[in-house]
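Can't attach files on this board, so I'm pasting raw text. These are the components:
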Amino acid sequence: CGVFGVFGHPDAAGLSYYGLHALQHRGEESSGICTVDTARGNAFNYHRGMGLVKEVFDKEKLDMLAGDRSIGHVRYSTSGASQLANAQPLIFRYRDGDLGVATNGNIVNAPEIRRELEMSGSIFQTSSDTEVIAHLIARSPKDFVTAAKEALQRIVGGFAFLIMTNDKLLVASDPHGLRPLVMGRIGDAYVFSSETCAFETIGAEYVRDVQPGELLILDSTGMTEDRYAEIERRATCAMEYIYFARPDSDINTINIHSARKRMGQRLAIESFVDADIVTGVPDSSISAAIGYAEQTGIPYELGLIKNKYTGRTFIQPSQELREKGVKMKLSAVRKVVEGKRVVMIDDSIVRGTTSRRIVNLLREAGATEVHVRITSPPFKNPCYYGIDTPDRKELIASFRTVEEICKEINADSLSFLTDQGFVESVGGNDGAYNRGMCLACFDNDYPTVVDEESDKSCSC
Ligand code: 5GP
Ligand code: SF4
Ligand code: MG
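---
Top answer:
Structure tokens for the assembled complex are below.
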């Protein structure tokens, strides 16, 4: 998911519209904006709907969202939860006013807290675990900020939160900084976003990344930089660098395109193969393919084309839709690949569906050899922090060797980037093993307690 917040700009909804549009790659299922209008008694206005930002909002809708503060959200779902009730921001009645919550991420202990709250009388309106934080805040007799701090201390997981009442905006990142969240300025206003690419779109200036465990409190007195937890172990999600984030974004000041390019270069060093052309699977692997080509001197070619009117394949809930999605999404360029030995760069193999399909597309278009190079280590363990991954039993690398996967995807050869190669590609070699990243889907070392049995589906 993607979140976007504004504090102190007369057109908060307009900025949110463009900001969320820039974050659309983080979720295509639903979009929503909630504003507070300090010129009219701090009233809440909001609109949410299923679909893309440009489908959910038009001029009329935006005009109704008067206000100078806002929180906004784009959502991707996992199976079963694709419904309007779960579209964010979630809005609640709170004391004599309103409470809005927008989240990117997942609360690992949400089911447990939810059960406990339900046993003592809470009635939940959604199946989203974001609602848990609202209930924790609402049930506390303490003042809003203290209640929010204590609620944040109760929850475990990977999350970026924007929480708004009629007079305050809270911005928080989980104690490990798993999900990205950045702060920017536009004139006197503050803006907050899952990724920096949204700042470029609206003409805001990047200030800094919100730190793990940090809690920013914004109200009529300005911004207070506080924290609700110490940084235990910084663990920025590796998949953000590999796949999820847009190439023009920076996370922890590291540019995504440049990091991916270094992954491609490293892959060329670790597992060189002689070929006629290098091609990347659009869009996320183009940067890495350029890096591989630059390192080897093998020309980079546009061997695959993406139909940009199809969504990200993994966003569709069922396997059947996903298979169809892949066919609608990619085509091989026959005149480019015909009679050629092709190195095909992709960012990850999750279930194996996409890779097998693409290898076959290239062969059907006349490629004589297809060598697959993956810019991440084998994806063996599920994510509990809001990246949509299937159960362990569906992760092909958890039950197949590299040779078996190679055979299954019908490639001539297959190599993955090593853990160390990946880490050094992102952050350089300073001796620290993980450079403050979560690599759990590769090395099974989760930064928090996780429960294999628990529902890990992302509700954001
Ligand atoms: P596969 O078909 O092997 O599951 O997916 C391969 C491609 O789609 C990769 O480029 C990968 O980044 C993306 N992908 C597919 N499914 C998922 C998923 O469930 N989670 C994530 N994070 N990426 C996926
Ligand atoms: Fe990211 Fe993988 Fe960690 Fe999940 S387990 S936060 S996908 S690195
Ligand atoms: Mg891909």
